[in-house]
User: Which sequence fits this backbone?
């Protein structure tokens, strides 16, 4: 995978954001457990800019040992208190490396009850540095955390920095691509280095970025269900909302298969169409394969997730409105019910 092959192994090779590296290192090396300010570092930036990579490179350079808390782990209040808090008072490992707690994707903890409040408790009592990583620094759920944090805001890398990386990959891999196509790819990526590397590896040419970026998720899903669109077109469209497209495809693929011209004609003529179930099975198999790969939570496998999503739409044809995923509605209802259970102002106590 290009994302592994061209992954930087030292800070000097990191693409962009050179101005924030030294302040970040200074915060880490001068971190004081007795100080009440900046006890945590908050690294924020768009998806694919290398937030986790930058943290790893800095910790590796200065021989720190990272204790990771990711969305894959149980981030409920009880688990953090029993499994994470004890480590906050262990400053060094047996081989004399200083410990650091790294908490990933803190802005995607909607289902982890008490996560942010428990994390703030950890920050107040920790004896080791804590580094939090998020995509959306302005998310309301992490707002209580901000007063305790040293802000490290990553910005979109410059064209010159990204072009240097793309040129290196194109030359090393002998990829035939025009300068104008590279420019469109860089513009479309909007600073997402991972997207650029995955696109170069699959040999997908960039589309018109302005047209793509102005579309909403229902329009882009409609493009994915277009039987006449090429794989290249669908692949470029998929990445515009790769976090929601799999759910939208899962919600709508049956209706779009049944709405294809072949099946509609057979239904109208009241004739038997044996390929109907085969089409449904093929799409279901592709979505199952996508779930298996996506469950690994490995960014390097993202192109395979995309390819299986696109494979699931091969026999689909958009008809009517794209439906919003019911799964998200169920999650929203579950979270609402949890909040209502905890709203003690609504609880009526019987008189004894």
Assistant:
């Amino acid at each position: 995978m290009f994302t592994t092959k061209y992954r930087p192994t030292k800070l000097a090779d990191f693409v962009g954001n050179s101005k924030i590296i030294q302040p970040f290192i200074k915060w880490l090396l001068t971190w004081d457990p007795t100080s009440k300010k900046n006890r945590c570092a908050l690294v924020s930036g768009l998806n694919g800019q290398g937030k986790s990579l930058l943290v790893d490179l800095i910790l590796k350079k200065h021989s720190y040992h990272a204790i990771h808390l990711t969305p894959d782990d149980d981030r409920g209040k009880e688990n953090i208190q029993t499994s994470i808090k004890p480590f906050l008072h262990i400053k060094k490992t047996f081989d004399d490396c200083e410990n650091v707690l790294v908490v990933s994707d803190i802005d995607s903890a909607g289902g982890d009850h008490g996560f942010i409040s428990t994390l703030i408790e950890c920050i107040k009592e920790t004896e080791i540095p804590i580094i939090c990583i998020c995509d959306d620094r302005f998310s309301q759920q992490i707002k209580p955390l901000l007063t305790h944090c040293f802000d490290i805001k990553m910005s979109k890398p410059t064209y010159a920095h990204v072009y240097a990386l793309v040129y290196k990959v194109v030359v090393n891999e002998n990829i035939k691509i025009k300068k104008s196509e590279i420019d469109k790819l860089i513009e479309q990526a909007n600073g997402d280095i991972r997207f650029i590397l995955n696109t170069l590896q699959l040999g997908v040419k960039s589309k018109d970025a302005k047209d793509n970026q102005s579309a909403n998720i229902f329009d882009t899903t409609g493009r994915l269900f277009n039987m006449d669109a090429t794989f290249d077109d669908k692949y470029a469209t998929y990445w515009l909302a790769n976090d929601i497209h799999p759910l939208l495809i899962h919600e709508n693929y049956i209706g779009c298969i049944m709405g294809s011209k072949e099946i509609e004609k057979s239904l109208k003529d009241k004739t038997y169409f044996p390929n109907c179930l085969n089409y449904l099975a093929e799409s279901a198999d592709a979505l199952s394969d996508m779930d298996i790969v996506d469950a690994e939570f490995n960014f390097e496998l993202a192109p395979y997730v995309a390819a299986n999503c696109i494979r699931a739409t091969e026999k689909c044809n958009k008809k009517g409105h794209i439906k919003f995923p019911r799964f998200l509605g169920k999650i929203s209802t579950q979270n609402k019910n949890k909040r209502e259970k905890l709203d003690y102002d609504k609880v009526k106590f019987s008189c004894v």
In short: Residues 3 and 197 are 6 Å apart (CA to CA).
